[in-house]
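Archive maintenance. Older records in this collection stored only the sequence; we are now back-filling the structure field for every entry so that each record is complete. The fields below show one back-filled record exactly as it appears after the update. Entries are processed alphabetically, and OSBL5 protein is next in the queue.

ARCHIVE ENTRY
Title: OSBL5 protein
Organism field: Fregata magnificens
Length field: 232
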Amino acid sequence: DGEVHINELKNGNAEMFWNPTSEVRRQRLKRHIVLFEEQTDFESERLWQHVTSAINKGDQHKATQEKSVLEEEQRNAARERRENGTEWKPLLFQHDATTNEWHYKYEDLRPWDPLNDIAQFEKNGILQTMERHLSTRMSNHKTTCMNNQITRHKRSVKDCRRRKTSDQPSNHSQNTESSCSTPESVQELSDDDGKYLGFESLCAQCGKEMNHLKEIHSAVLSLQRAQQDIHR
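Back-filled structure field:
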């Protein structure tokens, strides 16, 4: 939280390395933690509270003592488990025998989806993601628009047929029948039929949101590629 300087021992020169300005502080992410009184005995803030307090007071000797007390308690607990034949079962971590490493059970390494993900939070030690399901909402809205257009089209087809059957068979009626804009054979409309008949033109709101989503999607793909490179 304070300024960091690089001191050259040879010539005594000092250079500014880090300066957390007010602008930097405003851009920081908010830190969310479990309330101290709601934490269990083994959560870090509660478990290391005496060590932390000593460090904040600048008492290195006291901090070392408190740390030794914690470590000795853990050694004694491990010794008792071995003597009693009790297997230690971690709540949030699992052991990988292949790499001989411990891994968090609920880690989420998928790329962040800004279109659907709102926030990530921890509850009872488990990471969870709050989602808005925007893609589903857009899909439903698009389907509703398409269905409305298809319904209006079928109604116009039905009206056209009614007019044809009510006319007398004459040259005039034949001209009327041939001038009908939709063929009589049209019964049901598939998605492709809708595109052929011009139903791909969405409502103004749909079209605007879809274009916006395409732009964001392109940006997301670029970020995902960068994340994959970082993971590699």
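Update note: Helices lie at 22-26, 44-47, 49-56, 60-84, 134-166, 171-178, 191-196, 204-231. The mean pLDDT is 77.
Entry marked complete.
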